[in-house]
UniProtKB/TrEMBL annotation:
Record-linked SUPFAM superfamilies: Peptidase/esterase 'gauge' domain (SSF50993)
Domain called Peptidase S9A N-terminal: residue spans: 2-77
Name of this chain's protein: Peptidase S9A N-terminal domain-containing protein
Pfam family, one: Peptidase_S9_N
Amino acid sequence: MFSKNDGLQNQPVLYRQRGIGEPQVLLDANKLSADGTTALAATEFSNDHRYLAYAISSGGSDWNKVRILDLKTNQPAARRAGMGEGVGHLVGEKWLLLQPLRRAQSRRK
């Protein structure tokens, strides 16, 4: 995983690359808001690298919203967490809690 900004973008783009293959866009923060002021504040993988938790900050705010991306499907996970909520916190950029999300998803299958 790496990030890159072409110099004309408000925010860097997060990519993933497997081996020597072409890099794939994993998360483009420039598409998170029309004015480009939503920034990627932190990222952290789950222990099994199935999920990516990422915190976003809107309009320069100190408050972050945490979202979880399912890396197998490249789709947002079913639940999101705001600052202080119980699922998928990022505190000090460390993954704290994913088990409730996994249990909720396994019940849906």
